[in-house]
């Protein structure tokens, strides 16, 4: 009987299976560590929490052909410069508040959530907060009593009273400011600031 060719022999496929499995394993582990270093706060795309001490702009990048957050000069949130640890605690409180109050039931945050209400990923930069210097104060007032401080989106939809405490509202504003600095490859794509170029 003719011996079976190499590609049809069992030992050959056993070796192939071992090599392919180990190769994929190494690739996946490498990619996992690479992704972790890209998404952690303090990386190039996701700035450290203390970025809330800076002015944030959103400009069109002609080379990348998309909008890009631009971190500017010092402009501490609520007029008080925070350390990295303090900033992290405030942003964490805001994030937990958005989870506890289920903001994603109506809004979208970094691609997750609903489209009943405006996308919150870049809400900090929303042209609707007209008074640049007073942006955080306007946001606090709105968050603590949305029905009586309705924004003008023309949709007729109103955000309900969610009984957010003053402390939680400060956290949410910090979370929104920090989130707006994340380089999301221009997502959400239709978002524009007042001063943005077309
Ligand atoms: C029941 C739906 C609903 C929930 C839940 C909800 N919102 Fe809203 N939100 C809205 C609607 C509708 C608007 C637009 C309101 C307007 O024009 O007055 C809005 C507007 C906003 C805005 C202004 C957005 C912008 O781009 O200027 C912010 C900020 C905001 N919501 C934050 C939150 C946060 C934070 C939570 C959770 C703590 C939350 N919302 C939960 C419905 C909701």
What can you see in these coordinates?
With 198 residues, the protein is α+β, with helices and mostly antiparallel strands. The protein is built from four helices and four strands; from the N terminus they run αββαββαα. The longest helix has 30 residues, at 10-39. The mean pLDDT is 91. The protein is 36% helix and 11% strand. The protein starts with 9 loop residues before the first helix and ends in an 18-residue tail after the last helix. α2 crosses α4 (166-180) and α3 (135-144) packs across α4 (166-180). It has two domains: 6-39; 49-180, Orthogonal Bundle (Cytochrome Bc1 Complex, Chain D, domain 2). A two-stranded antiparallel sheet has the order 1-2. Strands 3-4 form a two-stranded antiparallel ribbon. It binds heme C. Residues 97-98, 101-103, 105-107, 116-118, 120, 123, 126, 128, 150-151, 153, 157-160, 162, 164, 172 line the site of heme C.
What keyword list fits this structure?
single chain, 198 residues, alpha+beta, Cytochrome Bc1 Complex, Chain D, domain 2, 2 domains, two-stranded antiparallel sheet, two-stranded antiparallel ribbon, 4 helices, elongated, binds heme C
């Amino acid at each position: 009987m003719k011996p079976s060719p190499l590609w049809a022999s069992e030992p050959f496929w056993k070796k192939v299976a071992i090599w392919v499995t180990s190769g994929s394993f190494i690739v996946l582990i490498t990619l996992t560590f690479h992704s972790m270093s890209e998404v952690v706060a303090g990386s190039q795309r996701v700035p450290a929490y203390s970025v809330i001490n800076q002015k944030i702009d959103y400009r069109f990048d002609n080379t990348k052909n998309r909008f890009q957050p631009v971190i500017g000069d010092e402009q501490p949130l609520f007029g008080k410069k925070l350390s990295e640890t303090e900033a992290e605690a405030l942003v964490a409180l805001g994030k937990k508040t958005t989870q506890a109050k289920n903001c994603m039931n109506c809004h979208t945050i970094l691609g997750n959530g609903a489209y009943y209400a405006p996308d919150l990923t870049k809400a900090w930069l929303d042209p609707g907060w007209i008074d640049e210097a007073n942006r955080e104060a306007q946001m606090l007032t709105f968050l603590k009593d949305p029905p009586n401080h309705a924004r003008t989106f023309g949709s007729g939809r109103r955000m309900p009273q969610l009984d957010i405490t003053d402390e939680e509202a400060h956290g949410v504003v910090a979370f929104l400011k920090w989130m707006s600095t994340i380089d999301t490859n221009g997502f959400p794509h239709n978002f524009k600031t007042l001063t943005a170029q077309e």
